[in-house]
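Box 3.1. Reading complex inputs
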Amino acid sequence: MKKRPPIITLDGPAGSGKSTTARAVARRLGFRHLDSGALYRALTFALLNSGIKEEEWPDLPKEKLDRFHIWLRPAGPRFEVLLGERVLNDELRTPEVTARVSPLSALPAVREWLLEAQRQAGREGGLVADGRDMGTVVFPEAEVKIYLTADLKERAFRRFLERDEREPSVPELDVESEKIRERDERDSNRVVAPLRKAPGAIEVDTSFLSFQAQVEVIIDHVKTLTER
Ligand code: DC
């Protein structure tokens, strides 16, 4: 039987550059990129626009979640995230969504509900998937697992620069660092599928690496681990 192309997982804290790195690695390998955080963001966006009060989110049964038709559609080198027939992009990155996505993603019913769509995306392999639990829960069988980290201040700096298209002042950097630190703490301390380095994952600290260098480091690991 022909072996399917590999799955590569990239997990790590907020602002470690997972999505941009995963996209570049996927492009280099001719694989497809899955940004799993976009699914959690899509549900947050849908709930914010649903009129369902935030206090009720923790008790939403699966049947109610099913009413939001959130799904992944292969589109060239990536998966689009759709809500019904609407392709979601910038609306997933608003401060309102970012502020609420972490508590929502801690809910076991939500994680369970989104699991199948993610696994389906990896069914034929040839996937670079980024998130928090790609290597631990969603694709434990992945051939290559990377845990991407960077110094907190460096991550806050990059996040700010990407979003506001300018460098932050010292107080702005402190505020951004605190937001990221809080989100990491929540993502790492939740009961279900917390952010963890998967067994066998290779840690890549990007604090002092250029973007191009970090992509190369990962490509090297992929080659070493899959061309044996
Ligand atoms: O990677 P991101 O910033 O788009 O992720 C948004 C939130 O979604 C993050 O705070 C935690 C959650 N998330 C998760 O719990 N598991 C994933 N695999 C991906 C994201």
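In summary: The first strand starts at residue 7 and ends at 11.
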